[in-house]
Design brief:
The protein is of the alpha/beta class and 344 residues long. It folds into three domains: 5-91, Udp-n-acetylmuramoylalanyl-d-glutamate--2,6- Diaminopimelate Ligase, Chain: A, domain 1 (3-Layer(aba) Sandwich); 106-302, 3 Solenoid (UDP N-Acetylglucosamine Acyltransferase, domain 1), CATH 2.160.10.10; 312-343. It has four helices and 38 strands. The strands form six sheets. A ten-stranded parallel β-sheet has the order 8-11-14-17-20-25-28-31-34-37, with no helix packed on it. A ten-stranded parallel β-sheet has the order 10-13-16-19-24-27-30-33-36-38, with no helix packed on it. The protein has a nine-stranded parallel β-sheet with strand order 9-12-15-18-23-26-29-32-35, with no helix packed on it. The radius of gyration is 27 Å and the shape is flat.
């Protein structure tokens, strides 16, 4: 199925001002150098402005400063990348995870099912679960006892929502995610591990997106909490009692240890590791593959790790790192000898 928009409709969707033929129809968004008749493209990175004069797209989404460089229809917007996102949403033809309630779905008699709910094949909805209006549950999903899914929330196939977990409205959870699994809590008695039941749950706000195969553990005593408008990529591990503030974005492969508090509007780069029981201030950016061992108290950009080197260079660097203590002692001895010489 292909969606089609007129340029007039596209201008309304993006909130931009159209310069050109409002009746022209478009159906695809493509890169500027590949765009042809019937296509939409956009300029968000100024370094590609040199391509504008030769662009053959039906329409280009640009800022006002680049309009005169275009030799085709344009829609002038404040932020072309945001306009691109809204355009792709309007043209999206991704099928729903489910479209009705499958006969093979297993639904407890006392589960509360709202209006226009869809539940895919072999999904299990346990006792006391609540699915509000417009919820979509994909094939093979598990919704535990007394769990609650807010209005318009959508789960792709094989998502597991444990007992008493709460998801807000308009959330999106990709396949294979597990929400509410036990946190890693054990006591050790003379070498034997004693499991600590995890008595909290997970509370997720509105408009939260969670990537494929991400795991979010339930709290030990208090809850694990993810606030509104958070986006979480694929294959993250978020441990028990973690709190993530409004509008934070976390890239794939990141690991967050227990009881860490991440502030609002943070950006955590992929494959980063955050130690437990620390606090990350609002607005912090952590670049990819960083190891965060201590709290970050001020907004800013933080990095760690050694950038890629040739193996030969890396071996030299590693050898020098191992000699830091020896070099420090020699430097102190040299400084002391120079100080003694000045005193003489």
């Amino acid at each position: 199925m292909t969606m089609t928009l007129t340029l007039a409709e596209l201008a309304q969707i993006t909130g931009g001002e159209l310069f050109g033929d409002a009746s022209i129809t478009v159906s695809r968004v493509v890169p500027m150098d590949k765009a042809r008749s019937g296509d939409i493209t956009f300029l968000s990175n100024p370094k590609y402005a040199k391509l504008l004069p030769e662009c053959q797209a039906a329409v280009i989404l640009v800022k006002a400063a680049q309009k005169d460089l275009c030799h085709t229809n344009t829609i002038v917007v404040d932020d072309p990348y945001v306009a691109f996102a809204r355009t792709v949403q309007a043209l999206d033809t991704t099928p729903a995870p489910a479209t009705d309630i499958a006969p093979s779905a297993v639904i407890a008699a006392d589960a509360v099912i709202g209006r226009n709910v869809a539940i895919g094949a072999n999904a299990v909805i346990e006792s006391g679960a609540v699915l509000e209006d417009g919820v979509i549950v994909g094939a093979g999903c598990f919704i535990g006892q007394r769990a609650k899914l807010g209005r318009g929330t959508k789960l792709w196939a094989n998502v597991s929502i444990y007992h008493e977990v709460v998801l807000g409205e308009s959330c999106l959870v990709q396949s294979g995610a597990v929400i509410g699994s036990d946190g890693f809590g054990y006591a050790n008695e003379k070498g034997e591990w004693i499991k600590i039941p995890q008595l909290g749950t997970v509370r997720i706000g509105n408009r939260v997106e969670i990537g494929a195969c991400t795991t979010i553990d339930r709290g030990a005593l208090d809850d694990t909490v993810i606030e509104d408008n958070v986006i979480i990529d694929n294959q993250l591990q978020i441990a028990h009692n973690v709190q993530i503030g409004y509008g934070t974005a976390m890239a794939g492969g990141t690991i967050v240890a227990g009881s860490t508090h991440i502030g609002k509007y943070c950006q955590i780069g992929g494959a980063s590791v955050l130690n437990g029981h620390i606090t990350i201030a609002d607005g912090v950016i952590v670049t990819g593959m960083a190891m965060v061992m201590r709290s970050i108290e001020e907004k800013g950009i933080y990095s760690s790790g050694i950038p890629l080197q040739t193996n030969k260079e890396w071996r030299k660097t590693a050898a020098r790192v191992h000699r830091i203590e020896e070099m420090n002692k020699r430097l102190k001895a040299l400084e002391n000898s120079e100080l003694a010489a000045k005193e003489d």
